[in-house]
Write a structure and sequence with these properties.
The chain has 17 helices and 19 strands. The chain is of the alpha/beta class. It folds into three domains: 64 residues, Orthogonal Bundle (Arc Repressor Mutant, subunit A); 113 residues, Aspartate Aminotransferase, domain 1 (Alpha-Beta Complex), CATH 3.90.1150.10; 250 residues, Aspartate Aminotransferase, domain 2. α8 crosses α9 and α10 runs parallel beside α11.
């Protein structure tokens, strides 16, 4: 069979999915059975199935088979979570907004609207920002450590504080991540990431020509021994991790696991990008940078702390990598906006950021308690301070089928496949974002999801 013929077979299956002959959640035959039914070689059937996964039309679930995806958007630049789902109750995107924040932000902006201050704020700035911004953001990312946990007998806050000279800026947290990865991993290089990870990192890696190497996790998070094994098998250029409030699983690495991870990074001379975007919700936990500061690029942002439209990103970069990250931010066009940066500096200085953070910590706790109450009896993973829940579904449900059932009720949730580094290996689970809707709307949506979970797919999707 000519090499292109497997794509023609894939086109036929794609057409059946598009016109509804194959429905979301429907299982495809095993590759062996598919090969027999089509009179083709097993290797050709394997190419067909890999092509369908590549197009984002199907997903593989370990030990269960291959299923039609509910979300038929192709992979690549358009990534799950990158855009609103367009449904009335959006539990995909996860941007917390508390009622008091607008008034606080408005008050902090008033001095910036004077003509002289505005003129200065509208001038362009580079990745280094301004001296005032570097000092303010150094305090911001270090401030979460004032009640830090004990690390090797010393308080984390005493062992690591961001230095202003190490601070660089980007237009957003995503751009700061992209700049760090571009600086550390060459095209064709390998980046170790948790097997279930932030989807934007998957898209950034694809654009930069970086190969992702999934790192095994357990209930406590990333396994340091597994990282070492993956690196010994095929060397990594760097690692990307979320030690605090990991997205999508919601947990945080225990202190002993962070110490073991730091030891492995140092032993194998591996740089690491630490995503601290959600860290403001767990100010009691120390960052990985407290243990291995010489090789950790810590990335943070004000978008989750304040509001979705305020997207200034920050990277705390040790001296060994600083010039490379700054060059990557410049060449990528990822420098910050002057006005947004100056506004953030003022909000940090006048206490607005601290006040909004405190309100959001209380809000996240309330929403997490609500989720635990309304989804009682379900297999959930999360942190009491997190804005999302990882839900391992009842055995009757597969992720794609459950997402389709929720969509029929005008609720958007995210299937595990959006987070899976290997699209062929995806658990039967979903992530439920708790931050975006008002509490009464969230309550009704969670009640509906619980009802769906108690039903069977056959009842709801006929």
């Amino acid at each position: 069979m000519p090499m292109d013929d497997y794509r023609l077979i894939a086109d036929g299956i794609a057409a059946a999915i598009t016109d509804g002959r194959l429905r979301p959640g429907e299982q495809l035959p095993t590759q062996r059975a598919f090969a027999r039914s089509r009179g083709i070689a097993a290797s050709t059937a394997g190419r067909v199935y890999r092509e369908l996964v590549r197009r984002g039309l199907t997903t593989g679930e370990v030990g269960r088979g291959t299923f039609v995806r509910a979300d038929r958007r192709p992979p690549g630049p358009h990534v799950p979570l990158a855009e609103p789902a367009g449904t009335p109750v959006d539990l995909e995107l996860n941007y917390p907004v508390v009622p008091e924040q607008s008034a606080l932000l408005a008050a902090g902006l008033t001095p910036l609207l004077r003509a002289d201050a505005l003129d200065a704020a509208l001038r362009p700035v580079g990745a280094a920002g301004t001296a005032a911004a570097r000092h303010a953001f150094a305090e911001l990312v270090s401030g979460a450590l004032v009640s830090g946990t004990l690390v090797s007998g010393t308080r984390a806050g005493a062992s690591w504080r961001a230095s202003p000279e190490d601070v660089l800026f980007a237009g957003s947290g995503r751009q700061a991540i992209a700049g760090a990865l571009a600086a550390l991993v060459p095209p064709g290089g390998r980046l170790g990431v948790e097997a279930l990870t932030y989807p934007v990192v998957k898209a950034v890696a694809q654009r930069l020509g970086i190969t992702l190497a999934p790192l095994p996790v357990d209930e406590s998070g990333l396994l340091p021994d597994a990282l070492a094994a993956v690196h010994r098998s095929t060397p990594l250029n760097a690692v990307y991790v979320q030690p605090r409030l990991q997205n999508p699983l919601g947990g945080s690495l225990p202190a002993e696991r962070r110490t073991a991870l730091a030891d492995e990074l140092r032993r194998h001379d591996l740089p690491v990008v630490e995503d601290a975007i959600w860290s403001f919700l767990r100010p009691d936990l120390a960052p990985l940078a407290a243990l291995v500061p010489e090789r950790t690029i810590l990335v943070d942002s004000v978008a989750k702390r304040l509001a979705p439209g305020l997207s200034t990103g920050v990277a705390v970069v040790p001296a060994a990598f600083r010039d490379r990250v700054a060059a990557a931010l410049r060449s990528g066009g990822w420098a910050p906006g002057g006005f947004a940066l100056e506004a953030a500096v003022r909000w940090i200085g006048d206490g607005t950021v601290a006040a909004v953070e405190e309100a959001k910590r209380a809000d996240a706790t309330e929403r997490q308690l609500l989720a635990r109450e309304l989804l009682a009896g379900q297999q959930l993973r999360s942190d009491p301070c997190s804005y999302y829940v990882w839900w391992e579904l009842p055995s009757a449900w597969r992720a794609e089928t459950f997402v389709a059932a929720a969509a029929r009720e005008s609720i958007a949730i995210t299937p595990a496949g959006a987070f899976a580094v290997d699209p062929r290996v995806s658990p039967s689970a979903v992530r439920v974002g708790l931050a975006s809707p008002p509490l009464p709307v969230l309550s009704r949506a969670l009640e509906t999801l619980a009802r769906i979970a108690r039903s069977s797919p056959e009842e709801l999707l006929e």
